[in-house]
C-alpha cells in the first residue's frame, strides 16, 4: 500500500535524518532520544553493529566535548538523497560527507548512508542506519 502523501512524507523523513545528524554533531542527546526508535540499530562503516544505547553513549558530553580551543567543529553534509515511502515506513539513501579533524589535520570522508524510518507515532523515528564508505 502506498503512503497517502509520499512526497511530503519523504521530505519529513529527510528532515528527521538531517535533525539526527545535527544532533549527533552537537551531542544533543535529547533530540537523539526523540529521533531514535527504542530498537534502533546502526551498522558503522567498519561493519560494527551498535544498538541505541551504544550510539547514545558514544555521543555523550564526555566524548563530544574534546575539541581544542579555536578548533573548528566537525561538519556534515547530506546530498543526493533518494527516498522510498511505503505506508508508515521510509527508506532514505543519501551521501553523507563528514569534515573532521584527524591526527594529520582536517579531512573529508564520504559514505553512502541508508536509513529506515517509521512514522507509527505521527513523527518519523529512525530504526536503522547503515553506512558504507565511498572510496574516492
Spatially, the strands of the biggest sheet line up as: 2-1-6-5-4-3
List SSEs in N-to-C order. HHEEHHEEEE
> What fraction strand?
35-45%
* CATH architecture label: Roll
Kindly state the percentage of residues in helix.
25-40%
SS-derived structural category? alpha+beta
Give start-end ranges of low-pLDDT stretches. 68-72
Query: What's the CATH first level?
Result: Alpha Beta
Rg over CA atoms: 15 Å
The N- to C-terminal Cα distance equals: 39 Å
Give the rounded overall mean pLDDT: 85
What is the domain total for the residues?
Answer: 1
User: Biggest sheet, in brief?
Assistant: 6 strands, mixed
Might you state the CATH topology name?
Nuclear Transport Factor 2, Chain: A
Query: How many beta-strand runs?
Result: 6
Number of helices: 4
Coarse shape:
globular
Describe what is shown at a glance:
With 136 residues, the chain is α+β, with helices and mostly antiparallel strands.
Describe this structure in words.
This protein is of the alpha+beta class and 136 residues long. It has a single domain (6-133), classed as Nuclear Transport Factor 2, Chain: A (Roll). 29% of the residues lie in helices and 44% in strands. It is built from four helices and six strands, in the order ααββααββββ. It has helices spanning 6-26, 29-35, 52-58, 61-64; strands at 36-43, 49-51, 75-86, 89-102, 105-118, 125-133. Strands 2-1-6-5-4-3 form a six-stranded mixed sheet. A hairpin with a 2-residue loop joins strand 3 and strand 4 (89-102). Helix 1 (6-26) runs antiparallel to helix 2 (29-35). The longest helix has 21 residues, at 6-26. The termini are far apart. Residues 68-72 have low confidence and may be disordered.
Amino acid at each position: 500500500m502506498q503512503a497517502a502523501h509520499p512526497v511530503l512524507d519523504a521530505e519529513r523523513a529527510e528532515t528527521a535524518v538531517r535533525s539526527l545528524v545535527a544532533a549527533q554533531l552537537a551531542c544533543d542527546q535529547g533530540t537523539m532520544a526523540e529521533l531514535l526508535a527504542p530498537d534502533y540499530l546502526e551498522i558503522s562503516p567498519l561493519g560494527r553493529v551498535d544498538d541505541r544505547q551504544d550510539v547514545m553513549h558514544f555521543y555523550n558530553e564526555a566524548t563530544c566535548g574534546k575539541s581544542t580551543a579555536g578548533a573548528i567543529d566537525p561538519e556534515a553534509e547530506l546530498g543526493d538523497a533518494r527516498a522510498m515511502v511505503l505506508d508508515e515506513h521510509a527508506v532514505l539513501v543519501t551521501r553523507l560527507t563528514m569534515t573532521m579533524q584527524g591526527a594529520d589535520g582536517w579531512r573529508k570522508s564520504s559514505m553512502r548512508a541508508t536509513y529506515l524510518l517509521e512514522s507509527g507515532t505521527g513523527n518519523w523515528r529512525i530504526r536503522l542506519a547503515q553506512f558504507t564508505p565511498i572510496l574516492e
